[in-house]
Specification:
The complex is a heterodimer of chains A (373) and B (348). Chain A is α/β, with parallel strands linked by helices. Helices cover 31% and strands 19% of the residues of chain A. In chain A, the strands form 3 sheets. A 6-stranded mixed beta sheet of chain A has the order 6-5-4-3-1-14. Chain A starts with a strand and ends in a 13-residue tail after the last helix. Chain B is α/β, with parallel strands linked by helices and 348 residues long. Classes of the chains: A alpha/beta (373), B alpha/beta (348).
């Protein structure tokens, strides 16, 4: 029996890391700010058992065209000194700490990942998830995803390594990141492996899709009977002592290169906790730094999952959809198996070639006029 | 034709429920007549080209009814009722979609919850038998084609489980009620070419249903597809409350934004505009092109190993009472879900 417990969404400010030379200083600042806010949450709202930080919490992420080598130098090891520092906080506050970071793993020397992590109250890293959907299909940066080298990834970690779920005294926890939310299969794959709390570090900018993303969060919670802990960036501040910017010809003024090119409030905030019934339990009402805290009840969730009516996880015709999914070929696996993604354009090019195949295969229909309507 | 936009109408009609099978003929006639009046209204006022009727539109819903009694109220598709719709479509050059409880000579002792689209040809041009009926919730003893999957392929030949109809109004497909809960359904339709998905539904005023509105929008958005959801306006002459339905039929853009919504239950019609040409342009854009970006092959093993509802669950013996559905779900919960509390796999 798991008693209800507090969860805190820590919508923090992130110091952007760009220059490998000033990396440590910026990450230290991000660690300091996050841990300060954890301490504040503990004092102000009562001790949370789980705190969640945004996507790219430790490192930030800009969308400038950097080489893979630069990013791999910035990437954080999981586990590594940064998670050790968070581990000390986890021990001190007796809680689980989750968040996202740019990651580098020497076992995948030519790649960097966009990863989520969970650290347990004993200070150990207990889960590492690598984002499945994002830059590799959109074309705005160069991180690798497991599907890019699917065969090697699965042979190294197994099928469950794609969708890790960790069983803890506060329930079964899984992670997904930002753009993953647009692909309902990710949440489903975690829930089918038992995940009860979907930890969702995100970085959602303002844009026309915002309402749809909010609908998606509630939908994922409801259709998987799982809590969603969604945590967005609070604010972005520029890198410290930036020097190396020669590859950004778009920046006209030399002095601007010292700062951050994206808006400080580039993300719309609205970190929230959604119940397994698809209802918003608490929300930060805007961008900027903020903490939203609420109680979640895993015991009640387990009771709900044991009921027959509208139990989508039990009523799922998994065999039927296994067959239908087997017959569909959309975005390819192993696209970057022999050579890791080098240039951010490669992701957009890959999607473009799927679209062209879709038109040829009559999955999509070409419009009659070339010009936009 | 597909270069211009067209009007789609959801006909949120009231249903006179066939409580006693003996009343079948007059009530079918009454429901059909009223539906055609509403269709004529939509055509006359909005020049609608695509008209949609709700789930259960001809017969209504009666709990605890045996399969034998359900078969007495079922219709055949095609049959006289869809012929009447066909006459309308031919005269007005429209498409008309609906869903009804269907019997078929090929499947004695079973019935289906079947959606159909009738076209300007006057014929049933698409027929979809609901894959996720309320059977598992114990509300109706409907057979899903998945419950007889092997035999289905054998008997129905190439008849697809996920049909998509190519028309001048775009590629149309149907889903019914509870299918909405399973995103896999609409994903499959879209990756088989669907551009406009019609959701024929019957949603009561119940705790879960506010979330269904968000789900509809999520389905449209995550698939870059137009979506129209049609609920009934009320159910007359049954033991259920007259305003059993919550109404709120809705027409949604491929961006997941509502274009038109019914604000309540009760008989009404709502209208929106679809431009398939614009959708086709949108689907050529790289960003947020979720169907093309879906790594579908990555999830196959997840589904194969999930061991939830199996195919062919009622292949040897037809389902006879609604209680058999929950029994199967209970078994899945005991065998699979409650055993999920196994070893941690979080860190490799």
């Amino acid at each position: 029996m798991i008693r209800p417990y507090n969860v805190a969404c820590i919508q923090t400010t992130i110091r952007q890391v760009r220059d490998p030379a000033t990396r440590d200083e910026a990450i230290r600042e991000n660690l300091y700010r996050g841990i300060s806010l954890m301490e504040y949450a503990s004092i102000r709202f009562g001790q949370p058992k789980l705190v969640v930080l945004p996507e790219f919490y430790l490192t930030g992420a800009d969308h400038l065209n950097r080489t893979i080598e630069q990013w791999t130098k910035v990437g954080v090891r999981l586990p590594g000194p940064e998670t050790d520092a968070l581990g000390k906080a986890a021990q001190q506050f007796k809680m689980y700490i989750a968040g996202g970071t740019m990651e580098y793993d020497p076992e995948w020397p030519d790649r960097w990942f966009n990863s989520a992590f969970i650290i347990g109250p004993n200070g150990d890293l207990i889960l590492r998830y690598r984002k499945h959907n994002g830059a590799d299909v959109q074309g705005h940066t160069t991180y690798s995803t497991p599907s890019g080298c699917h065969t090697d990834y699965v042979s190294k970690y197994g099928e469950d390594g794609l969708f890790p779920v960790v069983d803890t005294p506060i329930g079964k926890l899984g992670c997904l990141l930002c753009y993953d939310m647009n692909f309902p299969e990710v949440s489903r794959a975690l829930a089918l492996r038992g995940a009860e709390v979907l930890i969702y570090p995100t970085g959602e900018p303002y844009g026309p899709h915002r309402d749809a993303w909010e609908c998606s969060r509630r939908t994922r919670a409801y259709e998987n009977c799982a809590y969603i802990i969604s945590v967005n960036h609070g604010a972005y501040v520029g890198p410290v002592g930036e020097k190396d910017f020669a590859d950004s010809p778009n920046l006209i003024f030399q002095e601007r290169r010292q700062g951050e090119i994206s808006p400080i409030f580039r993300s719309h905030g609205h970190s929230e906790i959604v119940s397994y019934e698809g209802r918003v339990v608490t929300v930060v009402n805007g961008p900027g730094e903020g903490i939203a805290q609420a109680t979640i009840d895993i015991g009640a969730l387990r009771e709900r999952r044991a009921q027959v009516k509208n139990n989508t996880l039990a009523q799922l015709r998994s065999s039927l959809y296994a067959e239908t999914y087997d017959k569909i070929n959309a975005f390819p696996l192993d696209h970057w198996r022999s050579k890791a993604i080098q240039n951010r354009r490669e992701g957009a090019d890959a999607t473009k070639s799927v679209i062209e195949r879709f038109v040829a295969d009559k999955v999509y229909v070409a419009p009659q006029n070339d010009s936009a309507v | 034709m597909s270069g211009s936009s067209y009007v789609v109408s959801c006909l949120q009609c009231e249903i006179s429920v066939i409580q006693d099978p003996a009343d079948k003929d007059p009530l079918l006639k009454k429901n059909l007549k009223r539906s055609l009046e509403l269709a004529a209204y939509a055509v006359a006022t909005e020049e609608s080209r695509l008209l949609i009727l709700p789930e259960g539109w001809l017969q209504g819903f009666v709990p605890n009814r045996t399969v034998a009694d359900w078969l007495k109220v079922c219709i055949q598709i095609p049959g006289p009722e869809t012929d009447a719709l066909g006459d309308f479509c031919r005269r007005h050059n429209t498409y008309l979609a609906g869903a009804a409880f269907e019997k078929s000579d090929a499947w004695p002792d079973r019935f289906f919850n079947t959606a159909f689209i009738v076209g300007p040809s006057g014929k049933v041009e698409l027929k979809y038998r609901q894959l996720n009926p309320e059977t598992l919730n114990g509300l109706l003893p409907v057979t899903s084609p998945a419950d007889v999957l092997n035999e289905y392929a054998h008997k129905e030949g190439e008849s697809p489980l996920f049909p998509v109809l190519d028309t001048p109004l775009g590629r149309l497909a149907c889903m019914v009620g509870n299918d909405l809960n399973f995103f896999e359904h609409m994903r499959t339709l879209v990756l088989r070419g669907a551009e406009v998905v019609l959701h024929l539904t019957a949603e009561t005023t119940a705790a879960a249903f506010p979330v269904w509105e968000e789900m509809r929008r999520a389905r449209a958005y995550e698939n870059v597809a137009y979506f129209a959801s049609v609920n009934n306006g009320g159910c007359l002459g049954s033991g259920a409350p007259r305003v059993r339905s919550r109404g709120h039929s809705e027409i949604i853009s491929y961006e997941g934004k509502p274009l038109a919504s019914a604000d309540s239950a009760g008989e009404t019609a709502i209208h929106g505009s679809f431009s398939v040409e614009r959708l086709r342009h949108r689907r050529l854009e790289v960003r947020m092109n979720f169907p093309a970006q879906s790594k579908i092959k990555m999830y196959g093993p997840t589904y194969r190993n999930a061991d939830r509802i199996p195919n062919n669950a009622w292949s040897t013996k037809p389902i006879t009472s609604a209680g058999e559905g929950p029994e199967l779900v209970r078994k899945v919960i005991e065998d699979v879900i409650e055993s999920l509390h196994g070893p941690a796999v979080g860190f490799h």
